[in-house]
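User: quick one, sequence for these tokens?
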């Protein structure tokens, strides 16, 4: 019970209730496991700059993951990303209309009851403002609050920080921090919520903000064999 109270304090007792405008960041992520090595995913997101108002951004993407080892995998994907002008819901003109491809590597480091994950991503961005490269590194930690593993009917804490770089000066572009947690209802469904703080440096297509984040994560196995399900709650944003 003390761990659950601590989780709620971390999620809702911090800057989430601060003075500045709190936006919303909503995610639906579906992962389909083809076999022990291959899986595909589809994810949609919609964001607002005020609390469920002033919607300015949406994206939809899909990709393919190959598990090389139990704790090491590679992913490739592509998506459509759209950012609108501030001041209302999807106000024209668009600030950025983008098609993006990427490749990434994921490395998990289980340590007792905490699972650390390193994510390295290289993006190829075909935007309405020209072509750009971008590189991202995310370090995350997932901590179950009941037992040492995330199993059905388990609450968990989730914390991650991600930095964004380009190959042009000034190189550093963005920092994104998430503090929150979630609940795994079954081997297939989990919900995650928390607080995202985004700091941008000289970016025009989306300003840094604070967001209330909620994500619905759906994972299923084509073979429908319970023993093959390996559900590690995460998103592909």
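Assistant:
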């Amino acid at each position: 019970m003390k761990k659950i109270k601590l989780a709620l304090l971390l999620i809702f007792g911090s800057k989430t209730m601060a003075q500045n405008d709190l936006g919303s960041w909503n995610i639906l992520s579906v992962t389909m496991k083809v076999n022990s090595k291959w899986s595909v995913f589809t994810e949609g997101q919609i964001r607002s700059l005020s609390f469920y108002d002033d919607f300015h951004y949406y994206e939809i993407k899909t990709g393919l993951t190959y598990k090389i080892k139990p704790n090491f995998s590679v992913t490739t994907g592509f998506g459509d990303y759209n950012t609108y002008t501030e001041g209302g819901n999807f106000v024209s003109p668009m600030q950025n209309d983008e098609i993006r491809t990427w490749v990434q590597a994921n490395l998990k480091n289980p340590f007792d009851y905490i699972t650390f994950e390193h994510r390295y991503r290289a993006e190829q961005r075909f935007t309405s403002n020209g072509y750009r490269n971008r590189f991202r590194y995310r370090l995350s930690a997932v901590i179950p609050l009941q037992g040492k593993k995330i199993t059905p009917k388990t609450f968990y804490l989730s914390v991650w920080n991600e930095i964004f770089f380009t190959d042009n000066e000034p190189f550093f572009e963005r920092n994104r921090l998430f503090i929150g947690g979630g609940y795994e209802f079954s081997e297939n469904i989990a919900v995650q919520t928390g607080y995202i703080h985004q700091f941008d440096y000289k970016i025009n297509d989306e300003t840094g903000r604070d967001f209330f984040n909620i994500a619905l994560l759906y994972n299923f196995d084509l073979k429908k064999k319970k023993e093959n399900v390996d559900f590690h709650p995460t998103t592909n944003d």
